[in-house]
Amino acid sequence: MLCFSGTGESTSIQINRGISSSKVVKMSKEKTQWKEFLEAASVLQYVLSVIFLAVACYVLTAYLMFTSLWPLCALYFVWLVMDWQTPEKGGRKRRFVRKWRVWEHFRDFFPVKLVKTAELNPNKNYIFGYHPHGIVCAGAFSCFSTESCGFAEAFPGVRPSLATLAGLFKIPFFREYMMSAGLCPVSKPSLVHLLSKSGKGNAVVIVIGGAAESLSSSPGVHTILVKQRKGFVRMALECGADLVPVYSFGENELFKQVIFSQGSLSRKLQDLFKNIMGFAPCLFVGERFVLLPYRTPITTVVGSPISVPKHLIPTEEEVNHYHRLYIEALSKLFHEHKVKYGLSESHKLEII
Questions:
Q1: DSSP 3-state assignment of 307?
Q2: How far apart are CA 44 and CA 198, in angstroms?
Q3: Do residues 39 and 105 make contact, with C-beta atoms less than 8 angstroms apart?
Q4: What is the pLDDT of residue 25?
């Protein structure tokens, strides 16, 4: 189900692919055990992939080098050297991977819903700022790296690319899987290519708070890191890409995390690991089997674009100006939709 909702000039339409709302509710209540199993399995494989697949690819590569298949590995490494720059040149997005049926089961587990509040001009490029990070960015992946939530229908002519750690694209085999789903490195060459050298209608999705924000992820908590993060605004100015705030209600509710206080030894160790490896070692637990998240609805709301001019060498004043506009728009987006998507009127958005 895809929902368009908003105020002012935005529309309020529900698309259920020909199925009425009452029937959708009835069907959701009548899930078979097999359907529930498929949903749980699809989510579990995603979580395991986020946590372990990169390491597994390293181990598999090392193992194959000591087997009779080592010539294939050698050929792959030769090809890898030749293909090294591909992730920063748009990658190799495969539509059939983004449309795998497994992603529909993934969406239905929570479920995940994409909400549109404004039109996006396909003749422009965009930087989507996604908040909050959560533990595994389930909403961001479902909405922007798969077709399960109907992004192409909601925003015709706009092609999303979810940006993630550049180091992950150096991992044998793992890089191929990520590129096929449309992920790209969150590096300057990659972003410049997508926003300046790949035509119009490109939307790069950046999880602004990154690994540091994941350490604050916990049910009932709405803390985002953005005040000191201005690189995405500078990039928007350099490329003339409009800024679009995105808030995903429910992302922080998927897991319960052990939150260590600032200054504690455990938090210092987490920060040290994050600075070295690029991601944070969160201690979390889900509803079942530790790694299976709670079945909490995730509603990803895409806000209105902020028009940004193209300045190849933006001044600090310009960066600060559009950064301030972005924070104001993000805060407005959160407060306009929080009650509709499960929060109380008293819930605050803490921006640090």
A1: coil
A2: 35
A3: yes
A4: 41
- The pair of structure tokens assigned to 251 is 């992302």
Burial class (CB in 10 A: 0-12, 13-18, 19+), 247: buried
**Mutual angle of helices 33-48 and 101-109, in 10-degree steps:** 100
Q: Rounded to whole angstroms, how far apart are CA atoms 187 and 170? A: 13
Collapse the DSSP code of 245 into the 3-class scheme (helix H, G, I; strand E, B; otherwise coil) and give the result: strand
Residue 31 CB partners (closer than 8 Å, separation 6+)? 39
Percentage, residues of the chain above pLDDT 70: 88
Q: Would you state the structure tokens that stand for residue 29, as one six-digit string?
A: 């209540």
Give the residue from 228, 174, 182 showing the smallest Cα distance to 204.
Answer: 182
Per-residue tokens: 325: 């506009």
Task: Please name which of 3, 2, 35, 117 lies closest in space to residue 295, comparing C-alpha atoms.
Answer: 35
Q: What is the three-class DSSP state of 63?
A: helix
Of 19-23, 296-300, 339-343, least confident by mean pLDDT is 19-23
Burial class (CB in 10 A: 0-12, 13-18, 19+), 161: buried
